Structure formats: structure tokens, C-alpha cells
Fold this protein.
Amino acid sequence: MRSARGPWGRGDWLRGGDEAMETARERFARGEVTKEQYEAIKTGLENERAADAREDWNWRGWWNRDSALEIARMRFARGEISLEELEAIRRGLES
């Protein structure tokens, strides 16, 4: 099931959509990043999401996602920060 834009923003709101991942997909589709760059971004975002899931694996984890971390993920997906910077921000937010 592919998502559409709507009143809930981008992504599949029923599955908790991932706006950062959608941004990465769009950048790849527009030719802004190569396949290799897209795969690296995708892997980085998936790893961050998996780390979040390990910490709070139930529905509350999705519902109560850290908006600051989501901003950092979007910045990473847009190419504004590196994976290392994303990880540093995540560690800083956890402390």
C-alpha cells in the first residue's frame, strides 16, 4: 500500500509513515542523489528507526516519537547533515 499526501502529511499515517524516508525516496527519484547515496541514506534512516524501535517497541513508541529527532532525521534525508552528525544529535537528545 503506497501512501498519498493528505491532511495527515506525507507517508502512510496508518503505519506511522516516515517522512524522512519519503524525502530520501523523492530526492532519488528527482536525481538529486545517486543510487549509492540513496541506499546509504536509507540504511542510516532504517538504523535510526530500528534503534528507536528497540527502545520503545510498542505503539507508544510510534505515537510519542521525539519531534527533535524527527527534525534531525529530515535534515539527514535532505543531505544537510551527515550520518555521524545524526548519531551525535541522537546521543545528545538521549542524555
Remarks:
- The chain has one domain: 19-94.
